[in-house]
């Protein structure tokens, strides 16, 4: 549906009062620059510090084989994530469009890799990541009521569905409200980490170091499982790419994007290592491996008087990650549709709420399907392969773009050695994972490749019968009327 006729059709369904309200409140329909430095930092920390630090320690220890190596994996994952975040700080200031990896691949390596990133993101990696975060939320909400018995998995999934539904509704309703809630939840989750670190280090000062004395036992370490340990650690650090999804909504992005990324990742890395050290002061490696809710087990040992508070704080932390992810990732779909790589209905904005309503709603049914069909550690590995492959491809594209266009403006420029190290390590981990977990990574790779025929059939040149295009236009028009959405009326990049 073309913008002008669609807008005229839409206005026929609005009352004169609604039309006057639109004109008086705002003259044009577009996404506003409302994200300052504090909300930007809150979005990164709020997305990164979610379920990962409360779930991934088990996966890291299980696949690294010892306490010392698991702590080393956590530190190296933090350094590697910082290297990647610095690369994205350069990309975010070099290209002013929202969309993160999709936009950068489009600008550096061309439309096919960009489309595959879009395809992979919204067909399975984003639904998978939202699913395992919401499952963590459901587990931490439900398990305290059934301790010491196991909580019913059906109830956990039902609570997870309710959380996802609320977050979707919130991000459809208001950008400002979602942003303010994210800032509040970020402070809440940092308080949760402090509540774990302080008693852990008090125990360390009192001499409880027995679990750390034989830290580097490498007999149980195998090359096959080491990439999975890094995947679990990197999953906990994941989310630093998300601020780049909303570049067009960040105030003064040349300053705030690099500053927010650096402040956030340094803070998160320090806190993550300290939290894992605190875990080992109260739990033996075998006890940690037996726990599906590590923070709850820790609270029962270290803070018996506050044992019920920790699950609540962890659940709020997971909720913050859900909210931040649902705020940022639909902007990638919004930009992809604007570039013609997705149906145009997903590049439209609600005429009053100023939210990308169709893009936010698309993920919901896919998330619900994965919630009821996936196990949490399988979901992590399944989504990590494609996610890290495209992160590596994005930074490779940055290096290629530097070589081809050395005079392109780059307000923030990361040292080339950092970009090269990050790219090589990511490709190495991705390649090694095909050996260590061929089933899940193979499925992920196969689903990624399904986007190639879709691209050549629908994007590069529309090769399907005209009836398909007519049906698509018909549904787009009626969805536009139903959702009350239109194309943005001014360019924001």
From TrEMBL:
<keyword id="KW-0472">Membrane</keyword>
<feature type="transmembrane region" description="Helical">
    <location>
        <begin position="220"/>
        <end position="238"/>
    </location>
</feature>
<feature type="transmembrane region" description="Helical">
    <location>
        <begin position="68"/>
        <end position="92"/>
    </location>
</feature>
<feature type="transmembrane region" description="Helical">
    <location>
        <begin position="441"/>
        <end position="459"/>
    </location>
</feature>
<dbReference type="GO" id="GO:0015179">
    <property type="term" value="F:L-amino acid transmembrane transporter activity"/>
</dbReference>
<keyword id="KW-1133">Transmembrane helix</keyword>
<dbReference type="Pfam" id="PF13520">
    <property type="entry name" value="AA_permease_2"/>
</dbReference>
<feature type="transmembrane region" description="Helical">
    <location>
        <begin position="412"/>
        <end position="435"/>
    </location>
</feature>
<feature type="transmembrane region" description="Helical">
    <location>
        <begin position="35"/>
        <end position="56"/>
    </location>
</feature>
<dbReference type="InterPro" id="IPR002293">
    <property type="entry name" value="AA/rel_permease1"/>
</dbReference>
<feature type="transmembrane region" description="Helical">
    <location>
        <begin position="259"/>
        <end position="282"/>
    </location>
</feature>
<feature type="transmembrane region" description="Helical">
    <location>
        <begin position="104"/>
        <end position="125"/>
    </location>
</feature>
<feature type="transmembrane region" description="Helical">
    <location>
        <begin position="145"/>
        <end position="173"/>
    </location>
</feature>
<feature type="transmembrane region" description="Helical">
    <location>
        <begin position="379"/>
        <end position="400"/>
    </location>
</feature>
<feature type="transmembrane region" description="Helical">
    <location>
        <begin position="355"/>
        <end position="373"/>
    </location>
</feature>
<protein>
    <submittedName>
        <fullName>Uncharacterized protein</fullName>
    </submittedName>
</protein>
<keyword id="KW-0812">Transmembrane</keyword>
<dbReference type="GO" id="GO:0016020">
    <property type="term" value="C:membrane"/>
</dbReference>
<feature type="transmembrane region" description="Helical">
    <location>
        <begin position="185"/>
        <end position="205"/>
    </location>
</feature>
<dbReference type="InterPro" id="IPR050598">
    <property type="entry name" value="AminoAcid_Transporter"/>
</dbReference>
<feature type="transmembrane region" description="Helical">
    <location>
        <begin position="302"/>
        <end position="322"/>
    </location>
</feature>
């Amino acid at each position: 549906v073309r913008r002008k006729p669609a807008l005229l059709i839409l206005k026929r369904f609005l009352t004169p009062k609604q039309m006057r309200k639109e004109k008086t409140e705002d003259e044009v329909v577009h996404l506003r620059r409302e994200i300052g430095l504090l909300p930007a930092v809150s979005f990164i920390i709020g997305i990164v510090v979610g379920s990962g630090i409360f779930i991934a320690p088990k996966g890291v220890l299980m696949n690294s084989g010892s306490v010392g190596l698991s702590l080393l994996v956590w530190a190296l994952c933090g350094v590697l994530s910082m290297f990647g975040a610095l690369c994205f700080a350069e990309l975010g200031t070099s290209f002013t469009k929202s969309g993160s990896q999709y936009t950068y691949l489009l600008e550096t390596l061309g439309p096919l890799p960009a489309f595959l990133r879009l395809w992979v993101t919204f067909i399975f990696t984003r639904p998978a990541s939202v699913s395992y975060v919401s499952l963590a939320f459901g587990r931490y909400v439900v398990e305290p009521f059934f301790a010491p018995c196991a909580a019913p998995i059906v109830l956990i999934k039902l609570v997870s569905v309710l959380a996802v539904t609320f977050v979707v509704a919130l991000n459809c309703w208001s950008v400002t409200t979602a942003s303010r809630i994210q800032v509040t939840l970020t402070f809440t989750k940092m308080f949760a980490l402090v509540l774990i670190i302080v008693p852990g280090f008090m125990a360390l000062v009192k001499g409880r170091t027995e679990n750390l004395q034989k830290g580097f036992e490498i007999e149980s370490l195998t090359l096959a499982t080491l990439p999975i340990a890094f995947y679990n650690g990197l999953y906990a650090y994941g989310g630093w790419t998300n601020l780049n999804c909303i570049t067009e909504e960040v105030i003064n992005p040349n300053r705030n994007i690099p500053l927010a990324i650096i402040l956030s990742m340094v803070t998160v890395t320090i806190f993550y290592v300290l939290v894992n050290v605190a875990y080992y002061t109260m739990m033996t490696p075998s006890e940690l491996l037996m726990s599906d809710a590590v923070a709850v087990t820790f609270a029962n040992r270290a803070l018996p008087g506050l044992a019920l508070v920790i699950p609540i704080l962890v659940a709020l932390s997971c909720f913050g990650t859900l909210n931040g992810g649902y705020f940022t990732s639909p902007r990638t779909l919004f930009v992809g549709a604007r570039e013609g790589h997705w149906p145009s209905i997903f590049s439209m904005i609600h005429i009053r709420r100023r939210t990308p309503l169709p893009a936010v709603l698309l993920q919901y049914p896919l998330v619900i399907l994965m919630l009821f069909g996936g196990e949490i550690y399988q979901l992590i590995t399944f989504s990590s392969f494609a996610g890290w492959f495209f992160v590596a491809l994005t930074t490779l594209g940055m290096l290629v773009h530097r070589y081809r266009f050395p005079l392109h403006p780059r307000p923030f420029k990361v040292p080339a050695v950092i970009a090269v190290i990050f790219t090589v390590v990511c490709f190495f981990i991705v390649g090694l994972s095909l050996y260590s977990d061929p089933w899940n990574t193979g499925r992920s790779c196969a689903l990624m490749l399904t986007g190639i025929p879709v691209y050549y059939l629908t994007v590069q040149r529309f090769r399907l019968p005209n009836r398909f295009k007519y049906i698509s236009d018909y549904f787009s028009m009626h969805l536009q009327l139903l959702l009350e959405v239109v194309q943005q009326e001014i360019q924001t990049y």
